[in-house]
Amino acid sequence: MTTQAVMTAEGLRYRYGETLALDGVDLRVDPGECVALLGPNGAGKSTLVALTVGLFAPQQGSVRVVGGDPRRAATRRRLGVAQQTLGFPNTLTVDELVTGAAVRGGLRASAAAPVLAELGLAELRRRRVPKLSGGQKQRVQLAMALVTDPALLVLDEPTVGLDTSARRHFWQILARRRAQGTAVLVTTHLIEESAAVADRVVVLDRGRILADAPPEELVARLPDRTVTVSTRLDRWELEQLPGVLSVTPEHDLMRIQTRSPEDLLRALLDRDEQLSELRVQDAGLEEAVLALTDRAEAAQ
Ligand SMILES: Nc1ncnc2c1ncn2[C@@H]1O[C@H](COP(=O)(O)OP(=O)(O)OP(=O)(O)O)[C@@H](O)[C@H]1O
What we know:
By secondary structure, the chain is an alpha/beta fold. Helices cover 34% and strands 28% of the residues. Helix 3 (94-104) packs across helix 4. The structure holds adenosine-5'-triphosphate. One of its GO terms (biological process) is response to antibiotic.
């Protein structure tokens, strides 16, 4: 027996006037899965999210959430959405906001209390929005999205502005919910964070999916290495060395991406006898995503 997908997109196209924002997107998210949507600015991530949560109708193709049309209220109830741009009414307390979300979702007001406790918001429940920190506001948004026990949680850059411990707490809460079957679709620019938390990474560029795979698989496809070094050679000189793909200055160091670290090290040692702080690492997901999107650009 195959499990029912929580979300499916098939042949999804969306155009704003002249701009083709989505150009034939197929995607499937299963129960309990966490899928990270990555891609450069303007790739189409927000448009895909907007169609998934039923803000717009697809112009071609289809999108389904638990088998239904996300523009229908009954389907929308199965969705939890937390978006940075969403504002709160300043006059309401944390309790009122989360209770309001429960009632709007067809639940009793009493559904709010366990979620407030789960997110560590019980102490803050009488506080009004203007007196909350940025991190606390984000937790309130998550509580509002989780209170209806959604099948799919859609998160837009959810951990921006959170410190390390708040970020860990955030992903721990989601891990518990995912174990109970909630699927997560998250857009982010924090590539290394998505490598740590996502089951699958979907790389979108100019409205097309360039890759859809577990993060470790994307990294394994890339033969590149990153060499970090302190050198007197400047960026232009480094770019001329054999096998160099890119050079990024990082504080006092140079971060060099290469396909042939041995040749590069030989050339570096020949040209700079004061070379220091040398480190060679496998490329990370960030490099894998950049390589994919750069390759797509070069093919244009
Ligand atoms: N309301 C709109 N009117 C016209 N063009 C739009 C509109 N919204 C988005 N676009 C264009 O559609 C394309 C996809 O935009 P979208 O916002 O979906 O990308 P994104 O991946 O979310 O980008 P970012 O990472 O910058 O948020 C871009 O070229 C963008 O300029």
